[in-house]
Fold this sequence. Notes:
The protein is mainly α. It has one domain (110-379). It has helices spanning 5-22, 27-41, 47-59, 64-107, 111-139, 143-157, 162-177, 179-184, 209-222, 230-241, 247-259, 267-299, 303-307, 310-338, 342-358, 362-379. The N and C termini lie far apart (66 Å).
Amino acid sequence: MSLPLSKQLAEIAGLFLKLGITGFGGPAAHIAMMHDETVVRRKWLSDQQFLDLVGATNLIPGPNSTEMAIHIGFLRAGWPGLITGGVCFIIPAMLIVLSLAWAYMRFGSMPEATWLLYGIKPVIIAIIVWAIWSLGKKAVKSPLTAIVAVAVIVLYLLGVNEIALLFAGGFAVMLVANFHRLRNKLFSVYLIPLGGLGVVSQASFPFSFTSLFLTFLKIGSVLYGSGYVLLAFLRSDFVIRFGWLTDRQLLDAIAVGQVTPGPVFTTATFIGYILGGAYGAILATIGIFLPSFFFVAISNPLIPKIRNSVWLSALLDGVNVASLGLMAAVTWHLGWACLVDPFTILIALISFVLLARFKINSTWLILGGAVFGLIMRFIH
């Protein structure tokens, strides 16, 4: 006998509020926690259903773990569950990041805060590099995907628009992998020259709340892959195109998104607060997460068809490897911003070794970096 809707919603809210508060470690850790809670403990889903949801989140833009929360809420309690699951997973992280953004704006120029971030930023670089290495071993499945990854890195460093590269990489792999099907059906493929899709140029625009919201709405609508790919989009828009942030401010925002539980996409909350106060934080958060609710609502009934499509599988391979290329290229830029002396380089190297060799939880590494930064503050 199924529970009344109100009790189902209360269960969903309780579960995802808890995960939003305790969910350190990034999307992979979040999804593992959701599997334990919804499949092993609560029996809401079977293993196969859960795996199908994981596959579906990889085929649509947006933050994977947040979309898993939305999917699970939808399957458990329909449309009310869809909204409840997503909102309850996002809200705790948003409030924590909002409070840290307030503290950053109030105390960020103090020596203690500066030295704290001095120790955390190199750890973030190591975490991203390790994520690229780990994901790359799965994403680079053939010489074709390796070529796409390298091409994306080079073209991004030359200034080509990151959205153009993401979709061009996906479609290139899909078309080449399925070329024999196209040839057999006598299809002719005409590709738009990549240069016509836009090149990122240095510019500066006056701040507006409308641009802030629409930019985050765009990012939430097109961003595939790991949350770390968010770096490339944020840098291209807010550092290069608008000129509203510096590389150091961007890395500060990413550091806060990493050190807090819940979705990494709450980095948007931090940036919104820096640029436009509490109102800006709310607009940025809504903008980046809103598309996920829309995409889950559309894709959930289509999961069986998506799962079996050779075309979408090839497209996903291309998008994933292009995402890794973007991650690698933007990490190169950010590394120059924070690896500024032998100590920061040493922190990054030690963090990478601990991640790769001993599988240390990234949260502990970030806390360790913060402690090292404070120690350096007192030494100096």
